[in-house]
Design a protein that fits this description.
Length: about 350
């Protein structure tokens, strides 16, 4: 993949490199090429991706127009969520990220491998980090030479040949491009409603608010046709009724007023025979006090309490008592709860 930059851009080159790294020369050549492209107005910085991931170095916020990470073989970096979040903060709004990473062709391709991510999972990780417009392409499988270099130099696996035989055809190189949204993290914007007029601006300069108005299509308002309310009345509406028309029909007798305690249904407005007088309402007879002295129980359980009494027992609600003895309240129940 060829990496290019525009004149005047600030570029960050992030990778894993050391004195004995296999990609040290390739990284230096790429940095020189990018420096020639951005010119004197731009700048190309280099940073170890491990230091970015561990927060050992603090990148300037919204400083770079372009970030290129893990650009050269053997592509030993697997970008974590912490590294992607730090790179997002370092980009300017609408800044671009270009990265390369080796991925699996399927999630279950290798039983044991330092590579655990597929192309879909890498794209999902970019979206979770906050990048937009992400696009990922997968190239051909990684060569056996690169796999052996990863196993021996980078991952320090005990049996590199066995890993190469197992991973052959299942590991691919993915190149991704993504952008930062057109705003910085924590950006705020004032809402347009509720603003007051600036000082020195007259209120009359503002356009008048539109309101509902009645429009009369006439040059002179005096000539406007208005509906005459007298024309809305008919001739029969103007006739004054006479007393004969308001009288009760001859076959209809006046109804008498219902009694206070009406029982015939006249008060309810029903059809009743008014020739018959209302019967007085039946008054409920007062219940006789329950005699607990001369108790005559057919079941023999009235004096035992409500748990043993019938549903129609006249002693329901009364405490248990002995037949022939009067119920009395004793003890503290004879005194008031509140003592002044």
């Amino acid at each position: 993949m060829e990496y290019t930059a525009e004149p005047g851009q600030f570029v960050l080159l992030a990778a894993r490199a050391s004195a004995d790294a296999h990609n040290l020369d390739a990284l230096q050549q790429l940095r020189t090429s990018l420096g020639a492209q951005v010119g004197a107005a731009g700048n190309v910085d280099f940073e170890q991706i491990d230091r970015v991931e561990s927060a050992a170095v603090s990148l300037a916020s919204a400083h770079y127009d372009l970030i290129i990470t893990n650009p050269t073989a053997p592509w030993a970096v697997e970008h974590s969520s912490q590294a992607l979040a730090s790179l997002l903060l370092a980009l300017k709004p609408n800044g671009s990220l270009l990265l390369a990473e080796i991925v699996l062709d399927r999630p279950d391709s290798l039983e044991q491998s330092p590579i655990t991510r597929t192309k879909e999972e890498l794209e999902q990780q970019l979206r979770f980090a906050g990048f937009v417009d992400s696009h990922i392409e997968c190239r051909d499988s990684v060569s056996d030479e690169t796999l052996r270099l990863l196993a021996e130099k980078c991952w320090k696996l005990p049996n590199a040949d066995a890993f190469v035989d197992q991973a052959r055809g299942h590991i691919r190189l993915a190149t991704a491009s993504a952008k930062k949204p057109a705003y910085n993290v924590g950006a705020a914007a004032a809402l347009s409603f509720g603003k007051k007029a600036k000082s020195g601006t007259a209120a009359s300069d503002k356009p008048a608010r539109k309101v509902w108005m009645i429009r009369v299509d006439s040059d002179d308002d005096d000539d406007a046709e208005i509906e005459d309310q007298d024309e809305l009345l008919k001739d029969e509406d103007l006739v004054r009724p006479d007393m004969a028309s308001l009288a009760r029909p001859g076959d209809l007798k006046p109804r008498r007023k219902p009694c206070k305690n009406c029982t015939c249904g006249l008060a309810d407005g029903g059809d009743v025979d008014e020739s018959q007088a209302c019967k007085p309402a039946e008054t409920k007879k007062a219940k006789k006090p329950v005699d607990v002295v001369n108790v005559k129980s057919s079941c023999g359980s009235c004096s035992l309490g409500d748990a043993f009494r019938c549903s129609s027992c006249p002693y329901l609600g009364m405490p248990a008592f002995k037949p022939g003895e009067q119920v009395k309240l004793g003890g503290s129940m004879l005194h008031d709860d509140f003592m002044p």
